[in-house]
Write a structure and sequence with these properties.
Elements: E1 2-3, E2 14-18, H1 20-32, E3 36-40, E4 43-47, E5 52-55, E6 60-64, E7 69-73, E8 82-85, E9 92-98, E10 101-103, E11 118-120, E12 123-129, E13 132-134, E14 141-143, E15 148-153, E16 156-160, E17 165-167, E18 172-178, E19 181-185, E20 190-192, E21 200-206, E22 209-211, E23 219-220, E24 230-231, E25 233-236, E26 239-241, E27 244-255, E28 258-260, E29 268-280, E30 283-285, E31 295-298, E32 306-311, E33 314-316, E34 322-326, E35 330-335, E36 338-340, E37 345-349, E38 355-361, E39 364-366, E40 372-374, E41 382-388, E42 391-392, E43 397-398, E44 405-407, E45 410-411
Parallel strand pairs: 1-3, 2-4, 3-6, 4-7, 5-8, 6-9, 7-10, 8-11, 9-12, 10-13, 11-14, 12-15, 13-16, 14-17, 15-18, 16-19, 17-20, 18-21, 19-22, 20-23, 21-25, 22-26, 23-27, 24-27, 25-27, 26-28, 27-29, 28-30, 29-31, 29-32, 30-33, 31-34, 32-35, 33-36, 34-37, 35-38, 36-39, 37-40, 38-41, 39-42, ...
């Protein structure tokens, strides 16, 4: 184990002296020996540089003693200045960062979205564990292109100017984010926005707590380009105070989560090209200032969600037209859900584009003036819609020419 404060490195750790060379030398020496353990004792170590202050190396483990081991970005750094990162030319593999605080000194920087605490490009088998990323002008972690088998666990991301975790390059896959906390994030806690044609696949977010007060979504799952779809995202057992946007994705599952809108957007929004999304065993609550509802499904610019399943989920509305609001769909199954619209509709179905194959089965639905309203917007075609085995508080309001097969309904009102 190489201690950065011992000779020949002699890092000072007084919060004033620039210790970049000392820490980088220890990392490089460990890498030259085929890998090793670099230790950051408790203290505050100032680092500087562009595009990355400290380069991670293959087979090197960078470890501190906990929150008191602080690596802090020096004041007034260039636009591209990440605290830790992988080399652009060669990448990094089998590396880890554990039990340190990465402090971005946001108040002493010009605002820059490129001031991430950790930047990964062409990286594989990297573990970030027990790390507190705080006060970054940009992201907590920016995961760029061609990264695989990245794990972020037991970590905190707070007070970041941009996103908590950003996926902004294609070819990234097998990402695990587990048991993390994110709060006071300027834009989005988790944002997938690959800017090139490609996707971010096999992402699992589990047992995380996200407290999001920004104006954007807490979590966004898709691509900027309509040419590709992100594949196999799993969001499980999370508590999310904010909204999830499911967009340009396929085979996505949200399971066992509590999602509560902060206002302006529905708690769960499914829109544009989505092929196969499941919301299961969740509690989804809208906000009184939300104009969408709790779950909002819509086509945009001809991109239509397809094959959506909502099962065993509580959907509660405190704003918007209804708890479950649908503007267009090709294949929607709602099974075993409790859908409560309060003083609005439980299900508000107003197709704005040709829609088909809507099935609502074995649900408890309530709303005022009706549990379900269905009417078309313009000359659209609606085929194969049915509701069966449900408990409702009043008669359904299904307006011609929409036809909805109604079977075995029990009325409580």
């Amino acid at each position: 184990m190489l201690d950065v404060t011992n000779p020949p490195y002699n890092a000072v750790g007084d919060g004033i002296t620039d210790d970049t060379v000392a820490i980088q030398s220890a990392i490089d020496d460990a890498a030259a020996d085929g890998g090793g353990h670099v230790y950051i004792p408790p203290n505050t170590y100032i680092v500087s540089g562009s595009p990355v202050c400290l380069l991670l190396r293959t087979n090197v483990r960078l470890t501190g003693s906990g929150p008191g081991s602080v690596i802090m970005r020096a004041p007034a750094q260039p636009e591209f200045s990440r605290i830790l990162g992988s080399p652009f030319s060669e990448g990094v593999s089998h590396a880890s960062v554990k039990n340190v605080t990465l402090h971005g000194s946001r108040q002493q920087q010009a605002s820059s979205e490129h001031h991430a605490c950790i930047f990964l490009n062409n990286a594989s088998d990297v573990i970030v564990q027990g790390v507190h990323m705080i006060e970054s002008s940009g992201d907590g972690i920016e995961i760029f292109e061609d990264c695989a088998w990245i794990t972020v666990a037991d970590s905190k991301i707070t007070a970041c100017g941009r996103n908590g975790i950003t996926f902004d390059g294609s070819g990234t896959r097998h990402i695990i984010v587990q048991s993390c906390e994110m709060s006071d994030i300027g834009a989005q806690a988790i944002d997938s926005e690959p800017t090139t044609v490609g996707s971010v696949d096999n992402v699992t977010v589990s047992n995380c707590v996200i407290d999001h007060h920004g104006g954007n979504y807490a979590v966004t799952t898709g691509c900027q380009s309509a040419e590709t779809l992100n594949n196999r995202w799993r969001i499980r057992d999370c508590q999310i105070n904010g909204s999830i946007q499911v967009i340009r994705s396929k085979d996505l599952v949200i399971e066992g989560c509590a999602v509560t809108s902060r206002g302006h957007r529905a708690a769960v929004v499914i829109e544009r090209e989505v092929h196969g999304a499941t919301v299961r065993s969740c509690r989804v609550c809208g906000h009184e200032n939300d104009e969408m509802g709790a779950v909002f499904i819509q086509p945009v610019d001809g991109e239509v969600p397809k094959e959506i399943l909502i099962a065993d989920t509580v959907i509660e509305r405190h704003g918007g037209p209804g708890a479950l609001a649908v503007r267009g769909i090709q294949g929607l199954d709602v099974w075993g859900c409790s859908i409560h619209g309060g003083e609005r509709y439980g299900v508000h179905w107003q197709p704005t584009i040709d829609s088909s194959d809507v099935r609502i089965v074995a649900c408890a639905i309530s709303g005022i003036p009706a549990p379900v309203i269905a009417f078309r917007y313009g000359p659209v075609l609606v085929e194969r819609a049915a509701i069966s085995g449900c408990t409702v508080n009043a008669a359904l309001d299904v307006r011609w020419p929409i036809r909805m097969d109604q079977r075995d309904l029990a009325y409580t009102g």
